[in-house]
Predict the structure.
Amino acid sequence: MLSPKITRNITRIVPFGVLWLFFSLLYTVLEKGLLGNLDHYPITGVPYDFARNVFTIPAASLLMGILSGILEITYFSKRFIKKSFTAKIIFKSILYLLILIVFLLILSFINSLIAHNGQNINELSSPTRAFFTSYSIIGILLYIASIVVITQFYAEFRESIGLGTLNNFFLGTYHRPVVEERIFMFVDMKSSTTIAENLGHVKYFEMLKEYFFDLSGAVINHTGAIYQYAGDEMIITW
């Protein structure tokens, strides 16, 4: 049986994959609408196969979404935890965009490799160069950048208000009040006033941030939910 922490991380990662899958399907349909009955890409000359793209592009995007979700949960969310909401979205979006450009470069080369049946390196790289030096890449990068920003906004918004709260919001729980039996725990810091006087207000609030961060992990590991913060008090519910 999966631990509460692993279960929570999976529920945090899956939406990244779902969002990327949705937008990739949308892109595939839009691409088909633009190319119509063409059997190749006009700029690169690479054969166009809608039946292949409708599978490969969403599959690659789903993989990219899951990988970005894993990267987000295991590294970026911790690395940028002290940044502001806006700064986190901007910095992480730029990093993800750079990673995706490399991914797109590799994907374009692989596509050329499949289409040209492994010809020499110059013939394989020619379509890739044509693609990355055309105006098409600008539109694609803007589309990808939009997806990255949307997923990052979702991730930061979810982390700010809590996964459970966001799920309840989308499911309409707050519009249909339900009586629940819940357990509450009130966790209060001992001698917080004395500590605050000794540390000073700036260092004290820095300590509070670390204090709540450490406690949050323990709460999550025991399937709890943080209902509210009140000064140095944390109200936990099950």
